[in-house]
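Run log // design_07
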């Protein structure tokens, strides 16, 4: 795993494969920079839909596409969005606080899994929803 103090990084979970198939374990105390409080996933997302498109003031997240694929757009310093293809069940991205993230180009079978550092925070007090404002803050 990469530097756990960075605001964003890519990494891969270990995968164990044999004649029965593949297993990707998520050891919360060893593989993750935080202990998840919430897990959710996106599925049946239309290919032309953009999901996310915000940054968090408090929350940290890990995203992995456990089926199919999608493209993550990440901006961690206000200088522009970097595209990352999530196309493997073991490939993941860590998105820390104040990192812009959005997802697009979902394949029909895509399942995007998210591990979150906090329970759901309703309302907009945890989010920056305007990309231009995000860039000004960074």
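design_07 sequence
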């Amino acid at each position: 795993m990469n530097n756990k103090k960075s605001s964003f990084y890519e990494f891969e979970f270990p995968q164990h494969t044999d004649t029965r198939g593949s297993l990707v374990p998520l050891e919360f105390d060893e593989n993750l920079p935080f202990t998840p409080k919430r897990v959710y996933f996106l599925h049946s997302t239309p290919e032309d839909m953009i999901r996310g498109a915000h940054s968090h003031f408090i929350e940290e997240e890990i995203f992995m596409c456990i089926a199919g694929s999608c493209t993550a757009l990440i901006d961690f310093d206000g200088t522009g969005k970097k595209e990352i293809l999530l196309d493997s069940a073991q490939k993941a991205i860590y998105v820390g606080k104040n990192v812009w993230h959005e997802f697009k180009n979902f394949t029909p079978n895509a399942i995007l899994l998210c591990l979150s550092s906090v329970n759901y925070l309703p309302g907009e007090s945890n989010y920056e929803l305007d990309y231009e404002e995000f860039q000004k803050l960074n």
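The radius of gyration is 15 Å.
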